[in-house]
Automatic annotation (TrEMBL):
It comes from Shewanella benthica KT99. Pathway: Membrane lipid metabolism; glycerophospholipid metabolism. Residues 7-160 form the Glycerol-3-phosphate dehydrogenase NAD-dependent N-terminal domain. The keyword Nucleotide-binding applies. This is Glycerol-3-phosphate dehydrogenase [NAD(P)+]. The active site is at 194 (proton acceptor). Belongs to the NAD-dependent glycerol-3-phosphate dehydrogenase family. Catalyzes the reduction of the glycolytic intermediate dihydroxyacetone phosphate (DHAP) to sn-glycerol 3-phosphate (G3P), the key precursor for phospholipid synthesis. NAD(+) binds at residues 11-16, 142, 258.
Amino acid sequence: MKNTADITVLGAGSYGTALAISLASNGHRTLLWGHDPEHIENLKRDRANEAFLPGITLPDLLIPEADLATALAASNNILVVVPSHVFGMVLSQAKPLLREDSRIVWATKGLEPETGRLLQEVAGDVLGDKYPLAVLSGPTFAKELAAGMPTAISVAGTHAAFTQDLVELLHSPKRLRVYANDDFIGLQLGGAVKNVIAISAGMSDGIGFGANARTALITRGLVELSRLGEAMGAKTSTFMGMAGLGDLVLTCTDNQSRNRRFGLALGRGQGVEEAQKEIGQVVEGYRNTKEVYALAKRLGVEMPITEQVYRVLYEGGTPREAAVTLLARDIKSETQDSE
Ligand SMILES: NC(=O)C1=CN([C@@H]2O[C@H](COP(=O)(O)OP(=O)(O)OC[C@H]3O[C@@H](n4cnc5c(N)ncnc54)[C@H](OP(=O)(O)O)[C@@H]3O)[C@@H](O)[C@H]2O)C=CC1
Ligand SMILES: O=C(CO)COP(=O)(O)O
């Protein structure tokens, strides 16, 4: 049938398109909705998303769609892949058009700007509690995923049956390994906090520090994430998986990460605005830093790296001052939880 699909993806940027390519390559009819009709026309014409993933052909089962009502009527499985600052808005737009049997999953990594709420709270607030919810999180650069290179990811949600269906839709024995997880909060937190730590690793490399400093930031970043997770009710073991250590290592070490590149630019002396402009795609960590920092303060969780990234982004501190402050902190035991 022309207007039915196994899954609909909302958000036709780099990651929404990459996930849609992966799903369609698995043999699933996949609608890809984007808010800009001209961009969707280009996708249809070129059978590629040249603006975000140049040179990668869209599989036949991927159908670009500019009309939100058509996209949401086509499937009960809705995968949201828009930046966190428009997540609530897109859900509000979708709400009156959703099918009764809709199930909502997102791959957005971040917290709600201004409130610092987890996206599960935003979704619950906008949609109520009648739809199953889930999240995808883990080390997955869009370009590699779209090119069919091997990737692994985790999924967790409110309903085990939905989580399992998502594993089956996404899993590909050739290129994508999908792990079910039962820590909905942990997967969301991992995706938000790694953005901040990737900026710190970028700043360190941008200054000219080496592998030792970068590795220390990843390791202590993991400690910060675990502390915040504990305070929020997540499982510490989650952070040893794809959505914690996995995504931290990926985005702190590889220049495909926009958060890391943003940090690199700052470390080399560029200004915040100029660095963001140059990247030209969403840098989730810019807003996330503010929200993670506020959340940590509210919960009384010690997150010194996050605090220093915050000082650079919002209080005029320099990356060098941030590094000096971190290094000069009081001597403590590695396993000590707070000072
Ligand atoms: N890229 C990656 O490798 C990965 C990204 N993610 C996460 O996925 C999310 C999306 O990121 P990504 O795709 O990379 O970002 P991009 O910057 O590549 O694309 C964002 C897309 O969202 C669209 N958009 C912006 N505002 C709206 C809106 N109001 N309604 C509908 N669409 C809108 C943009 O359209 P326009 O261009 O017209 O503004 C653009 O198509 C982020 O939370 C990111 O952290 C997670 C894992 C990997
Ligand atoms: O989340 C990502 C990979 O897992 C993408 O990271 P960036 O948003 O830093 O590019």
